Amino acid sequence: MKKFLLASAATLAATGAFADAHSPIKLGVVLGFTGPLESLAPTMAAGAEMAMEEVTESGNLLDGAAVEPVRADSTCIDAAAATSATERLITTDGVAGIVGADCSGVTGAMLSNVALPNGVVMVSPSATSPGLSTAEDNGLFFRTAPSDARQGVIVSDILQENDIDEVALTYTNNDYGKGLADAIQANIEEAGGTVTISAAHEDGKADYSAEVGALAAAGGDLLIVAGYVDQGGSGIVRAALDSGAFDMFYFPDGMVSQALEDNFGSEIDGSLGANPGTDSPGAQAYQDMATEAGYDGTQPFSAESYDAAALIMLAMQAAGSTDPAAYKQHIMDVANAPGEEIMPGELGKALQIIADGGDVDYVGASAVELIGPGESAGNYRQITFEDGKLAVVGYR
To answer: What class does CATH assign to 149-278+379-395?
Structure first.
């Protein structure tokens, strides 16, 4: 992969990354508008951009600066395309921070090849690979979604509570899938359960009968599909249903979407799953705001996207600067106690508190609390499928 040139502070200033009071602050929104999670990208982008619009309308950020979103397509799976798009955002559009990316592999590539050498902050709403927790980032990388190390515990707990002791597991063959599969298997086996097979699948295939054949031969009470809902994950489910190999599934976060209802309906009744989410007051406030804006705020990672953008802008206010080297040091501060709790719709209020010398504790739409290397402590929405519909059955 080619090396990208290091942009100096002077270059970034010239392109507008370190904005002054007379020009809009540009923030990148880098998501998979095409690719295996394209059904989730529209509501994720809507969340991030609603936070930016809210801040702009308040007039309280850095003496009245406006915030302008600039979209780029991560593709979710093409690291070269994602890094090229990110380089354009930084060197041509002059973004001062990035909401994104969505999928773990492209997020890691963007971080190491572009954001790190150029000193630009990234806050991902959905990249969950445990490997990102230890990636070299010089304090520039954060995420509002929890690591899959936490998700592995959630999967094991839900299966135990439903008396499911023996499972087959398939995962998309990339950093996200492998990291999640390892976390799931380790937790299931630690709890005394059995993973009969853990097998990778490739995205983009027309026929998954061979993969399903191997999974069926190993057997299990259900099939865990750690894949992408708009790609191989749904292909695996369709092949399993058509062959009669499995009729009950567990769906981790990359599979939880309206697309499951649309694709399978009552065929997957009784199946289980979970994705990041919370029933906090902030979550309901965000959902109401999204409904008024004309989109579905309950869709996966939409709330986390609003929060990712909010944290960047609040940190800028705390630093008194759009320079990532300055405001990166304030993201953990504005995300956590002490301070006045801030909910969705209160970004203007939060900016004023900071301007007046006060502290804020940004709770936001996903009950944000950042731990360790700047990642979410982790809240999950547990689901099942009943009468062809996704039903929320609890939070943990």
So the answer is: alpha beta
